[in-house]
Amino acid sequence: MTKKLRLAVLMGGPSAEREISLVTGKAICEQLNKKKYDILPLFISKENKIFLDRGYYELLNADNKKSKTVAKKMVPIKDDDLTKNKIDMVFIALHGTFGEDGTLQGMLEAMNLPYTGSKVLASALAMNKVYANQVYFANGLPFPQFIHFKKDGWKNRRDSIIGDVSERVGYPCVLKPVDQGSAVGVSIVKNEAELLSQINKSIKKFPWLMVQKFVVGKEATCGVIEKDGSPIALPPTRIIPNLGEFYDYKSKYKAGGSTHVCPADFPGHINHDLQELALKAHIALGCKAMSRTDIFVGDDGGYYILETNTIPGMTKTSLLPEAAKAAGIPFDKMLDYIIKASKK
In the chain, how many H helices and how many E strands? Predict the structure, then answer.
């Protein structure tokens, strides 16, 4: 009998995307093939302390589950317990700061623990929209025009920044934090007065902001997973937000917040182009095992890459599993591909 891989699924964490991470992590735990994996559900608190939910662990790994609910039995885990317990691999299910930006990846590298997904540099680059856009530019990939500034810059040269927005970006425009995901802190502003007001609010919470050209068009995304050593693009998805002006936090995560059309109902050549762009972004950033690139199909006929996610959402209704299913890859098999690709 083949020995099971002991897999720790890390979820939670201190970021603004904590609640989404918990949903992703539990979905991964429940979709993993129990014949192949001994699953350790590890929860990271807002204070960065790690706990094993012993009750959930027993439920996940039981041969006969008598109940679908179980009392929480949170057991504190020390960093060195991860190696003592001989964990074979960590499946990272954290989104945003700490989990997706290279911080956790660096810690696991230092502990000599294998983990899923992109390595430190690719994670850090993709999470930072300024650096990611610079990588896109160096590789001839399209993205919306933008300017960026930090808190001190706004304090010392706001007139110059507002002038740059007028000359290089125009109105309406999109204000967003440079290093957040899940549309956290993103707003569309229609004129200079709105921009001034919104920056003054946002800069208190997010010390590095960007102002990006507002693209008129249709929102799309395209996932990439690696199979047998090669990245393959999944069918693209067209995203129709139902609760906001764009695919914001509410549209992403509230019931009925958006409609996903997968495969996307664009003409065939556009779907092909979206797959090519997602593959090129994945390779340019140095992503590993999986990624998902969000792209606008402009009414002007152009394409505009918004960002590449190195740890996409993984619930049953998330975009990456949906696209994998459309490609004939069940959720559990997709997870197998990600784990296998991450070992190399």
Answer: 12, 15
Active site annotation includes 168: no
Please identify every stretch of the chain with a pLDDT value under 70, giving residue numbers as ranges.
1, 63-72, 79-81, 83-85, 181-183, 242-257
- Annotated active-site residue 19? The verdict is no
The CA-atom distances, in angstroms, between 248 and each of 76, 210, 280, 302 are 35, 17, 25, 22
pLDDT at 250: 47
- According to DSSP, the residues that pair with 296 across neighbouring strands are 219, 304
Please tell me which residue in 292, 303, 337, 342 is annotated as part of the active site.
Answer: 292
Domains recognised in the chain with CATH numbers:
5-115 (3.40.50.20), 126-142+217-343 (3.30.470.20), 146-213 (3.30.1490.20)
Q: Is 182 a catalytic residue?
A: yes
> What CA–CA distance (Å, rounded) separates 50 from 123?
21
CA distances from 153 to 156, 159, 164, 208, 243 (A): 5, 10, 13, 9, 34
**pLDDT for res 82:** 72
Name which of 144, 119, 135, 137 is nearest 285 in CA terms: 135
Q: What is the pLDDT of residue 181?
A: 66
- Give the pLDDT score at 66: 53
